Amino acid sequence: MNDAANNKVPDAVLLIAPGCPHCPKMLDALGQMVKEGEIGALQVINLAVHRERAAEFGTRSVPWARIGKLEFEGVHSPAELSAWAKTAGTPEGIATWCDAQLTAGQLGRVEARAHSDPLWLAALLDLLGNEQTSLQVRLGASAILEGADAALLAGYGPRLAELTRHSDHRVRADACHLLSLIDNDLSRKALTACLNDPDQGVREIAAESLAVLAARH
User: Fold this and answer.
1) Would you say 16 and 65 are in contact if contact means Cβ atoms under 8 Å apart?
2) What pLDDT, on the 0 to 100 scale, is given for residue 82?
């Protein structure tokens, strides 16, 4: 197997503890995935022996697993784990994980990742750009992006400008709001164009965002 192929196969970490009724199921499932080459390596940590590792991974419950960049609590079926492993390193996989977490009300978990890894910001923008995204997830994604480092968010200015031309007025409105956080010519140009948007709500948000940018000078 060449290096390029190896890089596409994620590694995994599993936290377990004695007496946990679900830990053996996760251990068996992930172990089988190693045998079948779906994950490259599996690190198993017994929290009864290494209690300090729970804080490192930010969890107090078991079983807890991380596949690539994606984290999971509780027991999951082999089919679920296999599906996640196939997309663990892709923007689509990260976006799907974020959608699932925000739907479950786990905004803090997604926020922690998004503020430390730009890939999560891109995934959240993908969710905002999808008209099928639920209102709950859309609100959560927008809130996290609002709190992101301004310099990191500015790197996605072109993507937000593109979203101001989306067919769905909700997507255009979200993009206009987030552009108020990016103080540059690209944002002002995109927002100025949105003053002529066919949707009144988008026009109003564009005007408000331009006012926010103007107030900074």
Assistant:
1) no
2) 95
Indicate the pTM of the whole model: 0.81
What's 48's DSSP letter?
A: T
Half-sphere exposure of 113 (CA within 13 A, CB side): 23
Separation CA 202–CA 215 (nearest Å): 20
Q: Which range among 48-52, 119-123, 160-164 has the greatest average pLDDT?
A: 160-164
What the chain holds in terms of domains, given with CATH numbers, is: 3-87 (3.40.30.10), 91-215 (1.25.10.10)
Q: Is the peptide bond before 78 cis (omega within 30 degrees of 0)?
A: no
CA atoms within 13 A on the CB side of 53: 16
Greater pLDDT, 87 or 30 = 30
At 45, the amino acid letter reads I
Residue 40: which residues within 8 A CB-CB, separation 6 or more?
6, 9, 10, 11, 34
